[in-house]
Amino acid sequence: MSGYIKIYRKLFKNFLWEEKRVYSKFEAWIDLLQMARYTKEKKKALIKNKLIVWGYGEIPASDSFLCDRWGWSKTKLRNFMGILKNESMIEQNKDQSQTIISVCNYSKYNIDELAKEPVRDQAKTSKRPVRDQGETETVRKKKESCKKDVKKSKYGELKNVLLSLDEFQKLEKKFGKEDSVNRIENLSLYIGSNGDKYKSHYATILNWFRKEAPKTPVATQKSNPLTGTWRP
After folding, report:
1. Range of the domain at 206
2. 163: which of 75, 133, 190, 222 lies 20 to 30 Å off by Cα?
């Protein structure tokens, strides 16, 4: 049997897939494929206050996370991972504080056919390629436009603080590693509890720092939710 079935990624947001259940081994394998990073750009995020980096075909996932997600025991998970590694389906890297799972030959499961279809259709009709080429050009321009946008990662306990790598590094340089993490965490909790929206989370952190007044009388101060200190 050859060929494949296209699966829309939004399928994994469907209530049927998200139903709480004990996963079969096949469901667990499909889940790993859909969780893997499917773009070439590396992803960076703070996980348990550690900066974790993963790339194409990789998933940052601890044993406890997968056991809870799939409804498995640790023994069942270890046996399953052992099977996948023996079959050269995955590799596991524990050099970072977070386990990174790499799907072997991930490109076989994540094929971009956009460039193939117009060529195939060209033999059928002279009109079809024009339309397909127009669609391809539109998609290409959209991708190029997206590349111009600065890539931002999600930080904080609630994953709702958006910062580019450059912004994150600037915060570390300005406040130090521990203080910058605390400020990000406090902003994350503040946004989560109040629902406030900001055009730039980086600018918000800097602006609140600028407004900090360390020696202002308490009676004339307002609470700064970002740092837990007081500001006028």
Report:
1. 152-231
2. 222
